[in-house]
Amino acid sequence: MPVEVCLGYFLGQDNSEVLEQVALLKEKAWIVRLEPHDGIINTPVDTVNLNKYIENTAEDYDNNNNSQAKRTLIKKLFSAKSIHDSLDQEHYLNQQYTIKPTSRCYMRGLNLQSAPAKVREAALGSCYKYDIRTSMYSHMLQHIVAHDPSWNVKGSYINEYCEHKARVRNMLADTCLTNTNSTREHKVKLVKGMLAAIGFGASLTNKYSDAMKKIYSADDRQNLIDNPWMKGLQAEINLYTSIMRLTYKSAKIQYREALQKNGRSSLSKWCTFDYQQTESTVMNFVINKIGRENVLLQVHDAIYVNHKVEQYVINSWARQISPLVHFEYEEIKDISYSRRLNKAGKVAEDIHKQRIIQEEITAFEAMLAQ
What we know:
11% strand; four-stranded antiparallel sheet; globular; alpha+beta; 370 residues; 60% helix
């Protein structure tokens, strides 16, 4: 990716300094790139916290009458119990992984990477999560500006989504999914999935595409297609795709084996491959800076760290590789208590109180009998 112009545009450096810095960045990126291989990752699990999650989820299951919600809860319970029962004596979960040609790490079998987020975070316990904000869209923006430094970043739809993703999702859920009979939270989730899918090349006009297959209302699908904001976003995605087409011919030769692994190569595969390479380079560089021994788990564009690292520090590292990348931060806290144990404790306390009251009544009646 031609980052020379992009770096100069955003950092305000003259061309000679930028070219020197880019040479260093390319060297760093090469150093941290992981070659394809298989291996084992051992992740420490907070069993006390995981047990609280299991007990609370079981309590939620018992008290929920919604069949769909119960199915979701039982899946989470099964996942959490499977992880708990598979730990070694030192409470580590042994997970198999494969590093792909893009340097992305994929775990297989029972693992925390593919576990539901709530289960994963319950297993990890108290830690700090850092993930790239709307990472695919940030990557698109990087390519567009590298191609045309005069492009209006601040006025773009992609930038608006990167900067204000919650507001955009809520707006689309409220104005487009008017015929979907569901909660607002679920509608926002549908919009989030739709935006992620079109970011990776899914069609907005095909009702069977990954972008639209979960939006069952034909009227709501049409609302999304006709929405002015969505039209603006789609135009910018098309611009990014046209830029990627310029390098597709050479990519088919350079990355032929990877792009043809599951069938014929395509422009969409090239876009995904290029994004994952950039993401992996950024993540590996940041992980090396933090110290791999301090990273509990990596889930593609997110990492869980055992201590707090200032957000601006992580972003300063990441932007040495990709100037428009932005990490978000969340503190993962321990589950404070088990509702099921508290409930059992309260029942025991109530029984104890009733026994004391009964003993006092018995003593009083005996006194009156005398």
